[in-house]
Amino acid sequence: MRIVLVGPPGAGKGTQAIRLAGKLSVPHISTGDLFRANISRRTELGKLAKVCMDAGTLVPDELTIAMAKDRMRQPDAENGFLLDGFPRNVSQAEALDELLRAEAIKLDAVLGLEAPEGEVIKRIAGRRVCRSRSAHVFHVAYRPPKKQGVCDVCGGELYQRDDDSEETVRKRLAVYHTQTEPIIEYYKARGLAVTISSLGPVDEVTRRALEALKRREGDGR
To answer: pTM here?
Structure first.
């Protein structure tokens, strides 16, 4: 299957992307991984992306699209892929459509993960990370350390990352609602989008996602 995975920060998209790609035996294509891989290999695309990232600006759509195009042409993606973080807006969705048409490839489904805003904020703002190199992660509500502010594993100091603060999370959600969420409606109009709740145990969300994709595959036929 060829799938796009969409969801707000804190919905568990990264976890589900890896699990679903494994279950479906397709590569997980993450824009973050693409940027890091191209920068590490010092490709021309990577050099251009690094300039943007070092300047603190978004990587332009054309660069993201070029990297995604190159990755989707790799042998392991011949029979399917799971896109995570791309497309991130309607313009990129339209560009992806053009790219796939040019390659005579059909997108099978767009899976949207849904979670109440309050839950998303609670999930992210409650994270605490160990300052040690191992960077163990805890959560004040879901996985609290035995001793407040201290890592159970190495005794290092636990802290809240700047991008995990409630203020920053709300800003990230605003960007998601404005830029990324509209692609779900874009794909719904074409009969490709399905949405599920991302609440509950990780295994349950994965099962829910696989069932939704199976129904979508059946409808597509």
So the answer is: 0.85
